[in-house]
């Protein structure tokens, strides 16, 4: 059986002027539904790895395969929460959560007809991470930790098979961190593969 995520001898450099590539000869394999952690100091290539797996970047050498197919475009089956929440300031929190559904099929086609159901799903996710009632607030009205949790909800809204998290506990207090890990355990038990970069 082939791994769900397979990275084979991947090298990527952001610029020809840089002496060291962001990643070089990188090989990793991750089974479906597996919880994996990539740990290393700042600048070692963790965020680059996430972008390679999700199809936001492509290697100069080597291959990246997910679910048996070579990654040659952004993955619809992956959710990604960046270290910086990257919330759109002109959209309310609930609207930020729904953004992937406006892009990813088949949700894009269903969103207008099933808007009420999707809104309810987003509200449930917010409740799960302790943000009940915050859907009508703009990102600038939320603390950094609250934005981080909302960003996680946005990564989960389309029920991805693979969840990529870039230092998700940055800015979270101990209680919120414990809640996040509880949610990740539930997701893993539900079959979602999780890659945690820290």
Structure description:
The structure is a single chain. With 198 residues, this protein is α/β, with parallel strands linked by helices. It has helices at 46-54, 93-98, 107-110, 115-128, 144-156, 174-189, and strands spanning 5-12, 23-30, 35-38, 61-66, 69-70, 78-81, 162-166, 193-197. Strands 2-1-4-5 form a 4-stranded antiparallel β-sheet, with helices on one face. Strand 7, helix 6 and strand 8 form a beta-alpha-beta unit. The longest helix has 16 residues, at 174-189. It is globular. The two termini are 29 Å apart. The model has no long low-confidence stretch (mean pLDDT 87).
Strand content: 15-25%
Major beta sheet, specifics? 4 strands, antiparallel
Number of strands: 8
Shape annotation: globular
What's the topology here?
Blueprint: E1 5-12, E2 23-30, E3 35-38, H1 46-54, E4 61-66, E5 69-70, E6 78-81, H2 93-98, H3 107-110, H4 115-128, H5 144-156, E7 162-166, H6 174-189, E8 193-197
Parallel strand pairs: 3-8, 6-7, 7-8
Antiparallel strand pairs: 1-2, 1-4, 4-5
How would you describe this structure in keywords?
198 residues, globular
In short:
The radius of gyration is 17 Å and the shape is globular. The chain has helices at 46-54, 93-98, 107-110, 115-128, 144-156, 174-189, and strands at 5-12, 23-30, 35-38, 61-66, 69-70, 78-81, 162-166, 193-197.
């Amino acid at each position: 059986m082939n791994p769900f995520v397979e990275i084979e001898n991947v090298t990527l450099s952001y610029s020809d002027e840089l002496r060291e590539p962001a990643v070089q000869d990188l090989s990793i394999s991750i089974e479906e539904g597996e919880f994996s952690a990539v740990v290393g100091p700042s600048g070692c290539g963790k965020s680059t790895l996430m972008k390679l797996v999700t199809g936001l970047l492509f290697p100069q050498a080597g291959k990246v395969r997910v679910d048996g197919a070579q990654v040659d475009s952004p993955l619809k089956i992956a959710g990604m929460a960046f270290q910086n929440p990257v919330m759109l300031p002109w959209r309310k929190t609930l609207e930020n959560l729904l953004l992937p559904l406006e892009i990813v099929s088949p949700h894009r086609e269903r969103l207008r007809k099933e808007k009420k159901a999707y809104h309810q799903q987003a509200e449930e996710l917010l409740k799960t991470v302790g943000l009940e009632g915050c859907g009508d607030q703009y990102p600038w009205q939320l603390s950094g930790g609250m934005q981080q949790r909302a960003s996680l909800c946005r990564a989960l809204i389309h029920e991805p098979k693979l969840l990529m998290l870039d230092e998700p506990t940055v800015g979270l207090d101990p209680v919120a961190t414990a809640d996040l890990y509880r949610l990740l355990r539930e997701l893993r038990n539900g079959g979602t593969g999780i890659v945690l970069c820290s």
